[in-house]
Design a protein that fits this description.
The structure holds 2 protein chains of 2 kinds. Chain A has no helices and 11 strands. Chain A is mainly beta. In chain B, strands 2, 4, 5, 9, 10 and 11 form a 6-stranded mixed β-sheet that branches. The chains are: A mainly beta, B mainly beta.
Chain lengths: 113, 116
C-alpha cells in the first residue's frame, strides 16, 4: 500500500476550466515531485520541491502552477489547458536529498476536452 | 541530457526467466533505478545500482556496467502477476543544485506480458 495519495484519480476538464490536483505523502519525506506520463512517452519530471521550496522547474508552461504549503502536501493548479496536456500526472516523494528512491502515488488521469 | 533505451514489449511464459535490457548515454551518471508499473497504478521501486555488478533481491536481479552504459533486470520464475511495465531510470549528477543528488530520467518502459 502506497504512502502517497492523490486526488482526484480521474479528471475531465474543458480548456477554460480551472482545477487543482492534490498529493499527500504520509512517509515523513522532505522532497516531493510532479511527473507527467503520456502514452508511449517516458515519465517527464515537471517540478521538484525540497522542504517546501521549489528546486526544479523543468521548463513547464505557466498554465501548470505548483504549490507546496508543507513537506506533506503538493498541489498542481491547472488553468487554460490544452488537449495535449491530457496525461497521467504522478506525484512522488523521497527522503533526504532529492534524487533518492522515490515513492509514487497512483496518479490522476487527466483528460482535457 | 540523457538518452535511455529499452525494448517496448516483451513476452514470456510462466516459470520462465526474462531479461530486460536498458542502455543509456548520460552526461554524468549517479545511479540507475528499475521500477515496476502495473496498468493504472503507481510505479513501485524494484532495484538500485550505482556500482558495477549484480544486485539480487529474491526473484529479481539487476546488473550494471557503467563502462558500457548498460543495465538489465532479470526476472526468474515468472508469474502472471509480473505482467507490467518495467521502467529504467538513470540519475544524473547535479553539478550546481546544492543539496540535490540529481534528477531521474526515465526510459519509455518495457511492457512485459506473461502467458500461462
Amino acid at each position: 500500500e502506497t504512502g502517497v495519495t492523490q486526488t482526484p484519480r480521474h479528471l475531465v476538464m474543458g480548456m477554460t476550466n480551472k482545477k487543482s490536483l492534490k498529493c499527500e505523502q504520509h512517509l515523513g519525506h522532505n522532497a516531493m515531485y510532479w511527473y507527467k506520463q503520456s502514452a508511449k512517452k517516458p515519465l517527464e519530471l515537471m517540478f521538484v520541491y525540497n522542504f517546501k521550496e521549489q528546486t526544479e522547474n523543468n521548463s513547464v508552461p505557466s498554465r501548470f502552477s505548483p504549490e507546496c504549503p508543507n513537506s506533506s502536501h503538493l498541489f498542481l493548479h491547472l488553468h487554460t489547458l490544452q488537449p495535449e496536456d491530457s496525461a497521467l500526472y504522478l506525484c512522488a516523494s523521497s527522503q533526504g536529498s532529492p534524487g533518492n528512491e522515490q515513492f509514487f502515488g497512483p496518479g490522476t488521469r487527466l483528460t482535457v476536452l | 541530457g540523457q538518452n535511455i533505451d529499452q525494448p517496448t514489449e516483451m513476452t514470456a511464459t510462466e516459470g520462465a526467466i526474462v531479461q530486460i535490457n536498458c542502455t543509456y548515454q548520460t552526461s554524468g551518471f549517479n545511479g540507475l533505478f528499475w521500477y515496476q508499473q502495473h496498468a493504472g497504478e503507481a510505479p513501485t521501486f524494484l532495484s538500485y545500482n550505482v556500482l558495477d555488478g549484480l544486485e539480487e533481491k529474491g526473484r529479481f536481479s539487476s546488473f550494471l556496467s557503467r563502462s558500457k552504459g548498460y543495465s538489465y533486470l532479470l526476472l526468474k520464475e515468472l508469474q502472471m502477476k509480473d505482467s507490467a511495465s518495467y521502467l529504467c531510470a538513470v540519475r544524473d549528477r547535479a553539478p550546481d543544485r546544492g543539496s540535490t543528488l540529481g534528477r531521474l530520467y526515465f526510459g519509455r518502459g518495457t511492457q512485459l506480458t506473461v502467458w500461462p
